[in-house]
Batch of 2 targets.
Target 1
Amino acid sequence: MGRTRQPHTGYVLKHLWTIGELVSLKPYPAPKWLIKGWLPGGGWVLCFSKPKIGKSLLVAQMLHALAVGGPFFSRQPQPMPCVMIQGDTPMPLWQEELAQAGLPADSPVHIFEARPGALSGGLDPIMAELRPLRPCYVAFDAIDSLFVGLNINEVEPAKEVLRRLRHVAGGPAFLAIHHARKGSPGEQEDLRDAAAGSRVLMEQADQVVYLRGPEGPIEITGRLTSAVYKSQHLRRTEGGLWAWSEPKRPSLASASP
């Protein structure tokens, strides 16, 4: 069978296995992570929820951890240059939100102020400003603000969105924020189906981070991992940053004989 080098792992893997071949492969090649369980080293992440839940701050928090080498939810990533393309929140308001959240004033994450629809037309102006920074990871906030006039409920426009995101990101991995809004085309009971374009985009994403509410839970699903950060174990600072407290487990000394 043909073999393909997987961008997530760097290993050369087959696509077809017998049961015997699969169970005898020990260990199975581990995926490469930028932030383990959250940001894969290849492919792209879709982060979505209703508006004003905390997506942008969560992503800014991840980027800061990635830029300085952690920590994020007890993870310690390797530091790398990061850029957040902000086309959703007006810059004065975003400045205020970042200051209130308590992210360090000397954070090395670059924020690129983009006008609504900035990625709908020519990409050269953005590329000219990003190129000198040589970012290793780029986050886009938000797809529905940066792209105007494209119906991303349809497959071909959604593919064009991803093509443009990959071109701007430049590297093997990036993240995009997407708003889930009621009244979207094809709305159903499940918020995932009500999000404009999210169903099409989710099918293309390597990882999906879904915020169900302002206090959680946070659900992560994808080709490499799945996890649920339950609301009772999540906490948010007064400024809105996210933190995770490990569930307490009884010690041996306190266990019943």
Target 2
Amino acid sequence: MVEIERPVRQRRPGGAKSDPLDAVQAAREALARGQLAVPRQGTGREALRLLLATRALAVTGRTAAISQVKAFIVSAPDDLRAELRVLTTRAQLRRLAALRPHHGQAVDRRAIGIALRSGARRALALDDEARALEAEICAIVERVAPELLAVHGVGAIVAAQLLVSYSHPGRFRSEAAFASLAGVAPIPASSGQVVRHRLNRGGDRQLNRAIRVVVLTRTRHCEKTRAYMARRRAEGRSTREAMRCLMRHVARGLFRLLTRIMSGQRSRSVTSTRAVPPATQSRSQMQPAAAIVARLVSGLHLEEAPSPA
């Protein structure tokens, strides 16, 4: 079984449209392609995608709630501001969530107390939700690809994003295609005698962010990475150019690791009926598809043939 994207709908005489016609067109497109797409397997990718999207909404809401609370603290009474000034953000939220405004207070003080308590409770609830979702993500990653968590700079959220973007074996024809999707492939920006490359602003920005997190972690805690950055700077490259080179290097290593992990899972969990993957099938091995096209076409001719008088 191979996966075919939705073909461009062509104009047929009389506006004909049927399942057999669509099957013939899909089979012909499969024969014309040099590399066939492989259907996704049930490796937990969809579960990770849903959990990541839900956690992202929770984190965004938590950030907005904290920003609102910080803005409201400016309008709080002097005694409350002095008490909150020495506390951390999480301690401030806990203190504000325990406020008990009552009708005996002035209208302004009661209103600011209600607003601060509501915002603090919302921020704490979203923080608990984000932590619970992260625990679920970590459990799935540990089951699907524990090797990723052993890579320096890769945590549960970064590993989940890598698995979601990689998706399944066969999606990328090479590690250069993976780097292009991640937005770390170099883009020529030379002019005259200046030969340079600039950052790629396209691609999957979530995947790009995950790789950047790995790079930033390694630049702070890995001696080899710091030595690499110093060597690139000594060659005359700017910090941004050295970072681009490092992100490309990290993407290459992560792609090879993902390919090894996902290919091993596929060989263990999926029993293929073909001797070779579709990407390496020759034309002679794709003859069954041609036979299917022939049978479908002949069946259409039989259906369209007029019945005997």
